[in-house]
Design brief:
Strand content: 15-25%
CATH architecture of the largest domain: 3-Layer(aba) Sandwich
Largest sheet: 8 strands, mixed
Strand order of the largest sheet: 6-7-8-3-9-10-12-11
Helix content: 25-40%
Number of domains: 2
Radius of gyration: 20 Å
Number of strands: 12
Bound molecules: adenosine-5'-triphosphate, magnesium ion
CATH class of the largest domain: Alpha Beta
C-alpha cells in the first residue's frame, strides 16, 4: 500500500489550545501532523478527551487550529473564508455519532438527502425525488424511505440516511466521528460493510474516529493513536495487533478483551487515569502511566519518528536522536 498511495490532505503541526479557567490553557491538539490518502481510511483512536474530535473538526472547517496548516487541493483550508470556504465544504463531509440530532425533525428523508445538493445548485427541485431514491438505493434502504421522518427510523437506518447525504455531494473525504458506536454490534457491522463498499466504488478517503480498536483495525488502512493531544504512533491498520510499539498502544492492545473494547471505560492494563490536558507534563505525555519511563522521558518531548516504512512512533525507547 505504501508505494502507490496518493496524498490528498496533509495536516502539518496542528495545535489547538482552548482557554480554560484561571488563565490556564487546555492543549487539545499538540503539533499533530497526519496525512490522508486517496481511497484509504485513517482510523484515529485514543481515550475519551484525547483530542480526536477536535482534530477531525478542523478538516470540515467546524473549528480552526490555533496554529498549523491543513493542505487540501494546494490550499491551507484553515485560512479559507466566505465563498471559498463554502465551496470547499462540498469536498469534505462529516457523519456524526447521532445523525438524528443533526437532522431537522420536520424534514422528510427526501429533503434531508437533497438539501446540500440544492444548496450547491447541483440539482433542480424537480429532481429531488429521483435523486433521493438513487442515494437511498446506494445505502441499501427502500425508496419508500424518501417519505419518512427521522423519528420513523431506527439508529442504523438514520445512519444510512446520514451516509447517503454525505455521499450525495460526491466528496473526496468523509469524516466519521464515532459514527457507529451508538449502534448495536450487528448493525455496526453492516454499516461498516456499506462504508467499505462505497469507499471502494467511489474511491472516497475516510477519517474514522473510533473508541473500538477491534472495529477500526478490521478496516482502517492506517491507524493513528492519540494520547493527550499528541499522536504517539501511526501504523498500518493490519499491524496494530502484532507490531504496535508505543507502550500506550500496547496497553490499549493488551486491554482488548473482545472485539468490542470500549475506550471510554478504564483501561485495566494502565494503572492510573490519564492526566488532564490542562496539566500536560513536560517531556513525554505518557510518562506517568508508562512502565518504561526513564529520566529522559520526564524532560524531553519525544518526536514522532519513522521506525520502519509506514510506521512512526513517538517514544524515547525507539529511534530518538
Ligand atoms: N470548545 C471547547 N472548549 C474548551 N475545551 C474543549 C472544547 N472542545 C474540546 N475541548 C476539550 O479538548 C479536549 C479534547 O476533546 P475532544 O472532544 O477532541 O476529545 P475526543 O478524543 O473526541 O473525546 P471523546 O472520545 O470523548 O469524544 C477535552 O479535554 C475537551 O474537554
Ligand atoms: Mg469525540
Amino acid at each position: 500500500m505504501y508505494d502507490d498511495r496518493e496524498l490528498i490532505l496533509e495536516a502539518k503541526h496542528v495545535t489547538r489550545e482552548f482557554p480554560a479557567s484561571n488563565n490556564r490553557t487546555l492543549l487539545a491538539c499538540n503539533d499533530v501532523s497526519l496525512n490522508l490518502y486517496k481511497g484509504k481510511t485513517l482510523g484515529l483512536v485514543g481515550e475519551s478527551g484525547c483530542g480526536k474530535s477536535t482534530f477531525m473538526r478542523f478538516l470540515v472547517s467546524l473549528d480552526k487550529p490555533t496554529s498549523g496548516e491543513i493542505i487540501f487541493k494546494g490550499k491551507d483550508i484553515t485560512k479559507l473564508k466566505g465563498e471559498e470556504l463554502r465551496q470547499n465544504r462540498q469536498h469534505i463531509q462529516m457523519v456524526f455519532q447521532d445523525p438524528s440530532g443533526s437532522f431537522n425533525p420536520k424534514m422528510k428523508v427526501r429533503d434531508i438527502i437533497c438539501e446540500p445538493l440544492l444548496n450547491f445548485n447541483r440539482i433542480k427541485p424537480s429532481e429531488k425525488d429521483a435523486t433521493a431514491k438513487k442515494f437511498l438505493k446506494m445505502v441499501d434502504l427502500p425508496e419508500s424511505f424518501a417519505d419518512r421522518y427521522p423519528h420513523n427510523m431506527s439508529g442504523g437506518q438514520c445512519q444510512r440516511v446520514a451516509i447517503a447525504r454525505a455521499i450525495a455531494l460526491e466528496p473526496e473525504i468523509i469524516v466519521m466521528d464515532e459514527a457507529t458506536c451508538a449502534l448495536d454490534v450487528s448493525v455496526q457491522k453492516t454499516i461498516i460493510e456499506l462504508v467499505v463498499n462505497l469507499q471502494r466504488e467511489k474511491d472516497i478517503t475516510i477519517g474514522f474516529i473510533a473508541h473500538d480498536l477491534g472495529l477500526i483495525q478490521s478496516f482502517a488502512h492506517e491507524i493513528a493513536v492519540m494520547y493527550l493531544g499528541n499522536i504517539v504512533e501511526v501504523l498500518p491498520g493490519e499491524d496494530i495487533g502484532k507490531n504496535a510499539m508505543h507502550p500506550y498502544t500496547q496497553a490499549l492492545q493488551g486491554a482488548i478483551f473482545d472485539l468490542n473494547m470500549d475506550f471510554s471505560k478504564k483501561i485495566e492494563s494502565i494503572d492510573s487515569e490519564a492526566p488532564s490536558p490542562l496539566d500536560v507534563p513536560p517531556g513525554c505525555p505518557f510518562q506517568d502511566r508508562c512502565e518504561y519511563c526513564m529520566d529522559k522521558c520526564r524532560k524531553e518531548h519525544p518526536k514522532l519518528v519513522e521506525v520502519e516504512k509506514g510506521h512512526q512512533v513517538a517514544c524515547h525507547k525507539f529511534g530518538q536522536a
